[in-house]
Design goal:
Blueprint (H helix, E strand, L loop, with lengths): L10 E2 L38 E2 L2 H4 L42 E2 L11 E9 L2 E9 L3 E3 L20 E6 L2 E2 L6 E7 L2 H14 L9 E12 L13 E10 L3 E7 L9 E2 L11 E2 L1 E5 L2 E4 L3 E4 L2 E5 L2 H5 L4 E2 L6 E8 L7 E2 L4 E2 L31 H8 L9 H4 L77 E3 L6 H4 L7 E6 L2 E6 L3 E3 L4 E3 L4 E13 L2 E15 L4 E6 L4 H6 L5 H9 L2 E2 L7 H4 L2 E11 L4 E11 L5 E11 L7 E4 L2 E8 L2 E13 L6 E13 L13 E14 L4 E11 L5 H6 L1 H4 L8 E5 L5 E5 L3 E3 L4 E3 L14 E6 L2 E6 L3 E3 L6 E3 L12 E6 L2 E6 L3 E3 L4 E3 L7 H9 L23 E3 L6 E3 L33 H10 L25 E3 L6 E3 L30 H10 L24 E3 L6 E3 L32 H10 L24 E3 L6 E3 L32 H10 L25 E3 L6 E3 L30 H11 L24 E3 ...
Parallel strand pairs: 28-34, 31-40
Antiparallel strand pairs: 1-2, 3-9, 4-5, 5-6, 6-7, 7-15, 8-10, 9-10, 10-11, 11-12, 12-20, 13-14, 15-18, 16-17, 18-23, 19-22, 20-21, 24-25, 26-27, 28-29, 29-30, 30-40, 32-33, 32-38, 33-34, 35-37, 36-37, 36-39, 37-38, 39-40, 41-42, 43-44, 45-46, 47-48, 49-50, 51-52, 53-54, 55-56, 57-58, 59-60, ...
């Protein structure tokens, strides 16, 4: 019998006897009930023994925890058994005989995607594929190259389940990796048992499991060490099980399964360093703010060597080596939860695991197992020697683990939140403890397969075998954001909720949105913004220069109206086919059917939509980028639109008909996508319509909140666009889209729409009301939040007037439709809750002189010069010998001892010592004006919070203009001469600039009441001569007439369009029986609906019809039909500026017709056809149309003109078409002009254009009397093409060459129909290799043929992977797909499979776009706006004015990051210079000339630019460079130095690029960083030669070369010089250390040993700042404390390269 160790004792109660507590059972016969595959030849029933374990038993101090020992008495010998680790035979079945797939041998292999039958939830995100990788991990997305993650700690950039993350290599048959997806009942049953044992309350029944096994795998070892390679191999397994809502993960580590515990980094071969394996889970990067990303939550089980060693000795399931975790849930799951049962290895194992009961039962029969703790009576009975054994075989199968009696559980340490990548610290004294001197009742388990020999013995456990430190497990999330800190990010109509991992915003009841932006339920929504870009129609590019876009959406029935103003005519007709511009607003505010939600509830008001439209036939391509900028001060959505590309030509006057369609949107975290094909037709009168299609692909990215337990967004929804109307109004140059939208689950929604009018959109609720469906066809109308009424008629609540606002002190309430806004007074800003106003601390921006102090006051501040200086505080100078002025004596007398008395007024003096004209009291905030003696001027004092007077001027300054005053001034200066338009309504403002409640039109005499925004209150308008309405009375709802009137009076620009007909309503809001057009003078009678009564129209000056008689109407005549068709366009109102025929009282055409807008008049016949030669311009004498003279035969000009005028629909003229001009005799006028485009040209007597006479709009027309010059070859070819068609008009499809003003061929020719472009020589012959397809960027025909470009990032990556695959990659291996120009293809696929995803321009995957469908995902060139070539020139944008600025290189740009002391000022960071197509690596700064220098790896150049606004780059060296990297600058000697890592040389040159010379071209392998120390004339550089990395030095002229340090160096990327200590310092990406050493090799010390992947570094003011490739940011390290102090992550995440310091003056030692 083994005795306890000295000083220890074991007490067993009750005493153990030799009576059997369990008997040996023979194996069950084959096929008998309860038989199991793989069962041991015998088993022992679990006998529970009560063990009293005291701290003294373990030999531990009294204040340390007790250790769990376990023993089991078995039959015959009553031997004590112990808890043992699992054996390999206890792993889940694996291998090819079990259907496993085998991962190919290699160092960095990734399996093909395991497509999951249903999503697997990891944290709270669903994933549909899993990948198994060589390096001990399973991922939910395809893995990057191993160098991006294998040597780094958790978290990772991508989702990871890591049972043993290390650099593993199975090359040469060193082990196998097996994996499979299984639904086998035996595996699922076994997994379910483990989960229910570890989580007894879990309701979990797995439906699928993924088993991955690493068997006898080895660590990677480089070839140089192959002779000394170890034979250590590891075996481990992970099992992922999941159902519809939850996922759990098992890690299994068998005995002797782990023999190596870490691996060496590949990039530090000469350094004896080993990184321990990482074990745990990482969610990967998650998106926020649309395009930005941050590290998601992660959970670390083991991350140092000791904790990795314990993986097979410790467990959290009751069995050593078995670890169980709850890893995901469908809703709101941000923390990995471990099982909480102890499991410690007691002795070297002598038996296997033997717990699991395999079954072939097809269903889960958990009734046979008891997963709950047994009762105390059962425990006592089992432990009694006298109790008979009556347990059956079935009861032996019970798995009972009494968790309540286990003293030790492995739980996470106290949670700590720290910036990702920074080390976490465990609080001091943190140990796992058990209450002192409290005996523990311990359940003993499991039974042994092979009991030891007879002879009872007691097992003692050496405490050194078990580590009680619970630091094995660590958990963290990103720095937690809480409502207390970030509530201001929520809408003022939302509330904020804190969750375990962060906060979320939720709209309050009565509002909808995503919480950050909330709008009133049911209220109509307005959108405003700008449209810009270049749209090419045929071969003509048209610039859209920030033209206005306005949209109005009736949310209650899903109608969205969009208008784009000032659209040039050529592109206006063509863009009628681009309805997707307006479809965005339809999706955002669609009518919601059950189980669906419109886009705004998901995106809020900040989003980015990127759409690509491809037209067919013609293959024109158009990109649309629409960016939601938030809600403006009026609660209107602001959206900017950028359109670039080609559109098909649409003939002027054509009608575009869009067919209704349905489109399916797919929703992913932070991204919604769709792809659809649309049909539309283009028709002209009397011609067959032509059919077209376009293919739309779009991504809508937004910021969602994943913290809260919010209802999940459906994976797919269907938008149903029932009516799509498009129109271009030539006269107004307005493009209109009108769309009716409904959103529903995918499928047929017609049955739902029949259920209730709310879903069909045919209810009669007001536009500011919400339709609430009731049972059957019933519904209820409820006014939107912020409105009152009965639902059929609602009007706005003025929260400001009624005292319902929540605005606090120092703020002003402004009423808005449906809501209100709080506006702070001057000197105040909104607080975090967006309601109260708080004082602005102006001193935070350091406005005072460096020799002054800033004193903040309420709504103001003071600057006071320090003692020994004089001035006004903004400018301070040292005290001179001059006598102090009266102001200075006054001031100094109050500043006793240099400090002013508390609360005293201190006068402010200027730089000359005189009183500043405006004085302010720093304590009270009052300000006033003073004279030269400091005496206060009367009536100039202003209280705090109000704008002080401008004391430099004699008159009081004007306050800012109000909305009313701006409105009034616009009207008063609206004519071309800057004077008021005669007859225009001019608003009246009171003395405070606010709208007067009663407004009157001085010309018409009408009066009405308005609200605070100047909007007319319905029902208050009174005609001239009647008493005006009492404007203090409440408003009544608007009538149809008033809505009609207001819709005309508030067009897209907010004012009535000149010349438009405005309906007249009576005091009750009803249509006046007689209506008159204010501009034309026509009058007519209308019915109660406002429809004109036939035969009642009279012309100006004619006697009017008595509209009060109710005579029966006669049928409408042709004239009346014509007139009414124009007056009732698609929106029910006449289009402004359209020609309206005039009919007499009998409905016949008046002999004389006039255009109300243009002023032209002409005579018509009885059919309304214009009589030739009768048209007169505005102001010209008119023809007497009453004479019925016989008409002469029409001339060709008149026939031509008539054909054009009758070419529109219904035989009316086509708007925007060219109409030839004929003289009084019907002949072509020699000079012809297009009234819409403005082009003019000369014609011959046949109307044929004379070559070379065409002039653009605004240019001086040609003198058409001059003789015709001979035609040039270009003109002859052009005219032949034009004359090849009947009637001498050009036809579609014929190439017509373009000639310049001199008749020569334009260098670039384009085919108007096909869209192809090419360059030609002077004879018009095509230049070879210049032809481009439609939609592609044309070749610049003015330049010679382009030279060969440098290899792109995509092409270099592809080449490196091909080399990695041995030159012959397999079909299943991934290779980047590149475009012809070298950019990443937007769709990337895995080999030849259909497994594809989208990437951005940097090649990074766009989250949520992975697809395994036959149809590839709808990807755009990038989530960011696509680059449109030609690119504008790169100009410098100087950084914010600050003493010290960090300049960093990031691919195609140079960024500027100001320093505030030693802190990184992220808020003021900006892009200094954008360099498209470049890869900026090295960077340096010249403090004497304020210039930045850089190396360009892509262009293979060295460049510089002045840091002045608008400065352009200058190329200094562009020859004999291959891979220029590090760059250093000697400002004292005016020299620069650089390294080339391809040619392995170090060179120097003058700062202008001259005097170039090679310093070193030998004994260099991979030079990277280089620094120069001007004060000593020394040069230092790094060489990361894999076999012998080193840091060297020499003089600046290349003398005295020697090695500074080579021992213990791995991958020395970053290098800098510490001037204060005189040491050279480097950041090592191999050893992960920041070290410094003196130039002579002494004084070496480690500053920090926990770096990630430094690339470049600079030293300033006791801090090191380095660019980090792991974090893709700038990290700061304090030299004194050696701690990380700050980090900056740019919004656009990509690798940062070089970094340097820019200062306003040269620092000591730099010269």
């Amino acid at each position: 019998m083994l005795l306890p160790a000295p000083g220890r004792s074991v007490s067993l109660s009750p005493p153990v006897t030799n009576q059997c507590a369990a008997k040996l059972l023979p194996p069950a016969p084959a096929g008998a009930a309860g038989s199991r595959r793989g069962s041991p030849p015998f088993r022992c029933s679990a006998l529970r023994v009560r063990l009293f374990v005291l701290p003294e038993l373990l030999g531990l101090p009294m204040d340390r925890g007790a250790m769990l020992t376990a023993a089991l008495l078995c039959c015959w010998s009553c031997t004590v058994c112990v808890v043992t680790a699992i054996r390999r035979t206890d792993l889940f079945p694996f291998g090819d005989l079990n259907g496993d797939l085998i991962l190919p041998e290699g160092d960095d292999e990734t399996s093909r995607a395991l497509t999951l039958p249903r999503p697997f939830y990891f944290f709270d995100s669903p994933f549909s594929q899993l990948y198994v990788a060589t390096n001990g991990i399973v991922s939910a997305q395809d893995l990057p190259m191993e160098k991006q993650y294998v040597d780094d700690g958790l978290p990772t950039d991508f989702p990871v389940v890591a049972p043993f993350l290390a650099d593993i290599d199975t090359s040469g048959g060193r082990g196998n990796i097996y994996y499979r997806l299984t639904e086998t009942p035996s595996v699922l049953n076994r997994f379910a048992q483990e989960v229910h044992r570890g989580f007894p309350d879990a309701k979990f029944t797995p439906t699928h499991a993924v088993v991955a096994t690493w068997e006898n795998v080895a660590a990677y070892e480089e070839q140089a060490r192959a002779t000394g390679a170890t034979n250590k191999v590891n075996t481990f397994q992970t099992v992922i099980g999941y159902d519809e809502t939850d996922s759990y993960v098992l890690f299994l580590y068998p005995e002797d399964g782990l023999n190596f515990f870490g691996t060496r980094p590949k990039e530090s071969y000469n350094v004896e360093i080993e990184f321990p394996a990482r074990v745990g889970f990482s969610r990967g990067e998650v998106s926020f703010f649309i395009i930005s990303k941050t590290d998601g939550p992660f959970y670390s089980v083991a991350q140092d060597e000791n904790s990795v060693k314990r993986l097979s000795q410790v467990g959290n399931t009751g069995v050593p080596g078995v670890w169980l975790f709850h890893t995901g849930k469908r809703f709101s799951f941000q923390e990995i939860i471990p099982a909480s049962i102890g499991g410690l290895l007691a002795v070297p194992p002598t038996a296997g695991y033997g717990l699991y009961l395999d079954t072939t039962t097809p269903e889960y029969e958990f009734d046979d197992y008891n997963f709950e703790p047994e009762s105390q009576e059962e425990v006592d009975a089992a432990g009694s020697p006298d109790s008979p054994n009556t347990r059956s075989e079935d009861s032996d199968r019970q798995l009972s683990y009494n968790r309540e009696d286990v003293p030790l559980t492995l739980e996470p340490v106290e949670r700590q939140y720290a910036p990702p990548g920074f080390p976490l610290t465990v609080p001091e004294g943190r140990t796992q403890r058990v209450e002192e001197q409290q005996p523990q009742v311990v359940d003993v388990y499991p039974p042994l397969r092979n009991p030891p020999p007879s002879g009872g013995h007691v097992v003692s456990v050496d405490e050194e075998d078990v580590d009680f430190d619970t630091g094995v497990i660590q958990y963290t999330t990103e720095n937690k954001e809480t409502c207390a800190r970030f509530q201001q990010q929520c809408s003022q109509n939302a509330f904020c909720s804190d969750y375990a991992t962060g906060f979320c915003c939720h709209c309050r009841p009565g509002f909808y949105g995503n919480g950050r932006h909330c709008l009133p339920d049911g209220a109509p929504q307005r959108v405003s913004g700008k449209v810009s870009g270049t749209v090419t129609v045929g071969s003509t590019p048209v610039e859209l220069n920030n033209i206005d876009l306005h949209a109005y959406i009736v949310v209650g029935d899903g109608r969205a109206y969009t208008a784009i103003s000032e659209v040039p005519e050529p592109v206006g007709w063509a863009m009628m086919s681009v309805s997707p511009v307006g479809e965005l607003f339809g999706w955002l505010f669609a009518l919601e059917l059950p189980n669906s939600q419109a886009g705004f509830k998901i995106t809020g008001a900040e989003f980015s939509r990127h759409a690509e439209v491809v037209f067919s036939p013609g293959n024109q391509r158009l990109s649309i980028t629409q960016t939601g900028r938030g809600l403006d001060e009026h609660n209107h959505l602001s959206v900017d639109t950028v359109i670039n590309g080609n559109v098909p030509f649409v003939p002027p006057g054509a009608e575009v008909t869009m067919k209704p369609f349905k489109e399916t949107y797919q929703y992913y975290p932070s991204v919604a996508t769709s792809s659809s094909v649309r049909e539309f037709s283009v028709g002209l009168p009397e011609k067959a319509s032509e059919s077209y299609t376009f293919h739309l692909k779009q991504n809508i990215t937004y910021r969602d909140c994943r913290h809260g337990n919010q209802a999940a967004t459906p994976e797919t929804l269907q938008i149903n666009m029932e009516r799509v109307f498009v129109m271009y109004v030539k006269e107004e140059r307005i493009l209109r889209y009108a769309i009716t939208n409904k959103i529903s689950p995918v499928g047929d929604s017609s049955e739902v729409e029949l259920l209730n009018p709310c879903y069909a959109g045919n209810h009669d609720c007001d536009t500011t009301a919400q339709c609430i469906p009731l049972e059957g066809q019933a519904f209820r109308c409820q006014c939107a939040t912020g409105y009152r009424g009965d639902g059929q008629n609602c009007y706005d609540i003025d929260e400001c007037a009624e005292g319902l606002s929540s605005c606090g002190d120092y703020s002003q309430c402004l009423n808005l439709p449906g809501t209100h806004r709080c506006q702070c007074q001057s000197g105040f800003e909104l607080g975090y809750e967006s309601r109260t106003c708080v004082d602005i601390d102006e001193c935070m921006s350091s406005p005072c002189h460096i020799s002054a102090i800033c004193v903040n006051a309420q709504a103001s501040f003071q600057c006071q010069c320090l003692p020994g200086f004089y001035g006004d505080g903004f400018n301070c100078s040292p005290q001179a010998d001059r006598l102090r002025s009266q102001c200075e004596q006054h001031r100094d007398s109050l500043q006793s001892g240099g400090q002013p008395s508390v609360g005293a007024y201190i006068p402010q003096c200027d730089s000359d010592g005189q009183y500043r004209p405006r004085q302010c009291h720093g304590s009270t905030g009052h300000c006033w004006c003073v004279d030269s003696r400091g005496q206060e001027k009367p009536e100039t004092r202003t209280p705090p919070g109000t704008a002080p007077l401008a004391c430099d001027s004699l008159d009081k300054p004007e306050r800012p203009k109000t909305q009313c005053e701006r409105h009034r001034d616009r009207i008063q200066t609206s004519s071309p001469d800057g004077f008021p338009l005669a007859g225009a309504y001019v608003p009246q403002c009171d003395e405070n600039g606010q709208y007067r409640q009663l407004q009157c039109h001085s010309s018409t005499g009408y009066c009405w009441c308005v609200d605070s925004l100047g909007e007319e209150r319905p029902g208050t308008r009174t005609p001239p001569g009647t008493p005006p309405t009492d404007c203090d009375k409440p408003e009544r709802p608007k009538t149809h007439c008033e809505h009609h009137r207001d819709s005309v009076q508030t067009s897209s620009d907010g004012f009535p369009p000149p010349g438009a007909y405005i309906p007249q309503c009576d005091q009750n809001g009803l249509y006046l029986p007689e209506q008159c057009h204010g501009s034309t003078g026509h009058c007519w009678c209308v019915n109660s609906s406002g429809q004109e009564r036939a035969g009642t129209r009279t012309g100006p000056g004619s006697s009017r019809v008595d509209c009060r008689t109710d005579e029966p109407e006669r049928p409408k005549t042709h004239c009346e039909h014509h007139r009414d068709s124009v007056q009732t366009s698609s929106d029910g109102f006449p289009p402004p500026g359209a020609y309206i025929p005039q009919c007499d009282q009998n409905g016949l055409y008046l002999p004389e017709q006039c255009h109300g807008s243009t002023g032209h008049c002409w005579c018509v016949n009885s059919s309304g056809q214009e009589r030739a030669g009768t048209r007169t311009g505005p102001g010209s004498p008119r023809v007497d149309c009453r004479t019925d003279q016989p008409e002469r035969p029409k001339t060709p000009c008149e026939h031509h003109k008539e054909r054009v005028q009758a070419s529109g629909s219904r035989e009316y003229p086509v708007a925007g078409a060219y109409v030839p001009q004929c003289d009084a005799d019907g002949q072509y006028i020699p000079l012809q002009c297009h009234s819409s485009t403005g082009y003019c040209w000369c014609v011959n007597e046949d109307g044929q254009e004379r070559a070379g006479t065409r002039t653009p709009p605004g240019a001086q027309p040609r003198d058409c009397v001059k003789p015709v010059a001979p035609k040039t070859p270009c003109e002859e070819q052009r005219d032949r093409a034009q004359a090849s068609i009947q009637e001498r008009y050009p036809v579609a499809g014929v190439f017509v060459p373009r000639c310049d003003a001199q008749g020569q061929f334009v260098p670039q020719q384009c085919h108007g129909s096909t869209g192809h472009c090419w360059c030609v020589d002077s004879s018009g012959q095509e230049r070879a290799g210049t032809r481009t397809a439609p939609g592609a960027s044309p070749v610049d025909c003015r330049k010679p043929a382009p030279t060969n470009r440098a290899e792109s990032v995509c092409e270099r990556w592809r080449a490196s992977l091909i080399e990695h695959y041995g030159g012959n990659p397999d079909p299943q291996q991934y290779l980047p797909q590149c475009e012809p120009d070298g950019e990443f293809s937007p769709v990337q696929c895995y080999g030849e499979s259909t497994y594809c995803w989208c990437v951005d321009q940097e090649g990074r995957e766009v989250d949520g776009t992975r697809s395994h469908d036959a149809v590839k995902p709808a990807c755009l060139p990038s989530v960011a706006p696509p680059i449109v070539r030609p690119i504008t020139r790169p100009d410098v944008t100087p950084p914010a004015k600050t003493a010290v600025t960090l300049l960093y290189a990031q691919g195609q740009k140079i960024g500027a990051l100001p320093l505030n002391g030693s802190r990184l000022d992220a808020e003021r960071s900006k892009t200094l210079l954008t360099l498209h197509g470049s890869i900026v690596v090295g960077i340096a700064y010249d403090c004497k000339e304020n210039k930045v220098y850089w190396t360009d790896l892509s262009a293979r150049t060295i460049n510089r630019a002045s840091m002045a606004s608008g400065a352009e780059p200058e190329t200094l060296i562009n020859t004999n460079l291959v891979s220029p990297e590090g760059l250093a600058l000697d400002a004292k000697r005016r020299l620069m130095f650089w390294v080339d890592s391809n040619t392995d040389v170090i060179e120097s040159a003058s700062l202008d690029g001259s005097r170039r010379r090679t310093l070193f071209d030998s004994d260099l392998v991979n030079p990277r960083a280089i620094v120069v120390v001007s004060s000593t004339g020394s040069l230092y550089w790094t060489d990361w030669n894999r076999e012998a990395p080193k840091i060297e030095t020499s003089t600046v002229d290349g003398q005295g070369r020697r090695v500074v340090v080579s021992d213990g160096v791995g991958l020395p990327n970053a290098l800098t010089y510490d001037l204060s200590s005189g040491q050279i310092c480097w950041g090592d990406a191999g050893t992960k250390r920041l070290e410094c050493i003196s130039p002579n090799g002494s004084g070496r010390r480690v500053i920090n040993s926990d770096l990630n992947y430094p690339f470049s570094m600079v030293y300033h003011s006791n801090h090191f700042y380095f660019s980090d490739w792991r974090r893709d940011g700038v990290i700061a390290v304090d030299k004194v404390s050696s701690k990380f102090t700050d980090e900056y992550l740019p919004e656009q995440r990509s690798h940062l390269y070089g970094i340097t310091i820019a200062t306003t003056h040269c620092l000591p030692g730099s010269l």
